[in-house]
Amino acid sequence: xxxxxxxxxxxxxxxxxxxxxxxxxxxxxxxxxxxxxxxxxxxxxxxxxxxxxxxxxxxxxxxxxxxxxxxxxxxxxxxxxxxxxxxxxxxxxxxxxxxxxxxxxxxxxxxxxxxxxxxxxxxxxxxxxxxxxxxxxxxxxxxxxxxxxxxxxxxxxxxxxxxxxxxxxxxxxxxxxxxxxxxxxxxxxxxxxxxxxxxxxxxxxxxxxxxxxxxxxxxxxxxxxxxxxxxxxxxxxxxxxxxxxxxxxxxxxxxxxxxxxxxxxxxxxxxxxxxxxxxxxxxxxxxxxxxxxxxxxxxxxxxxxxxxxxxxxxxxxxxxxxxxxxxxxxxxxxxxxxxxxxxxxxxxxxxxxxxxxxxxxxxxxxxxxxxxxxxxxxxxxxxxxxxxxxxxxxxxxxxxxxxxxxxxxxxxxxxxxxxxxxxxxxxxxxxxxxxxxxxxxxxxxxxxxxxxxxxxxxxxxxxxxxxxxxxxxxxxxxxxxxxxxxxxxxxxxxxxxxxxxxxxxxxxxxxxxxxxxxx
Length: 519
What we know:
- Helix 1 packs parallel to helix 2.
- The protein is elongated, with a radius of gyration of 23 Å.
- The strands form three sheets. An eight-stranded parallel β-barrel has the order 8-9-12-13-14-15-16-17, surrounded by seven helices. Strands 1, 2, 3, 4, 5, 6 and 7 form a seven-stranded mixed beta sheet that branches. Strands 10-11 form a two-stranded antiparallel ribbon.
- It has 519 residues and is α/β, with parallel strands linked by helices.
- It contains 15 helices and 17 strands.
């Protein structure tokens, strides 16, 4: 049933039964799974105070795993009679149950408490991702870890790192040291750039894994490779500059790309590796092998988008071969949906759809072909899920090539309704990308992402027909979470919640239906 006083939980759980009282947390102790306790203790102490958790605390908080309970990543949470019990189907489910517990914390006249409640919960999709573009703007390890903290608090479980692009190469490769030696020293906005050592990557992977998040590395190929040419100019073509590139550069006051020169601008589609040069594939084989060795997760993203200066025949020749090289690492290759045009794709490759929520120009057909070849799809419609699209026209950051994406549009779409003739079982999940042409700090990233990142978290986790999966419910709940986000150092775009910035939802197959309140 619909809860008229629904707790401010995002994403909203599968089932919530509220009691009438509350469970005090002025004196509490933790028991159960040591790994879960190690993560939760400092978080609780940061809210409740360091003296609230003692071995003799009155309220017992039990954290446990029971594989007989529910399904993967699922959990139950019960609070009542001086005891809070969080039980996960697996370690990930237990962790997500503790994320819900943290959102339940309330401070009243008598101090901190949680409501008496029973929650049963499990995710809709097994892939719930965010993407951080560290190529256009480089974020150090500490900032990436803070981004992970933001995402896992909303039950995201994949972080897609866009590690390479025209403006910079961000991961050290032993066999090809000039990729970072020459290719990492700048970004899209004139900043200093930077790159991750292998130890840096190991630290990020470890930090993410402890929080049940999988890192998905992307090496963008064959386009978006201008930075490769800074260290290895013989492996990259001369820029294929179009009239559109010239017009955009003039409008933005930015330079055009020049072969072998760092590119501090935003244009796309002008670069490509040399597809008919055998040494190109030596580089790609070595890069993918070294990246795969660092990543315990199952996926290896090889790009494939916006190869505007590459003929269809050359693109197909390259991607068939690059796909086989990626699969040879033991990983499942992932590519942007344009690669679906290639007949010889590796079977089982995952496609990432970034077209509009109402597909255009054959994009849906390209996406469907991944499914036809035994793969699956990740949905990232740019006019709904791209966090770098401006939430309103006067927002100081972000772009608008896919349109203005206010909070309501970010919330009101259904991944299962975007692509015709794609069964729901073939949708691996959703991802909310943040491209960083206009971003220079984590605070600026926050200002574009929050609160829209919460909308996509609910889309990825909560059932489409859930009682609280409505705009009215979500808007109220997200407003209640804003103070807690800000207290944790997140720069939230509060204007996104204003009436004038929440227009009626756009019409399209992804629009969520209105759910009437029932008794």
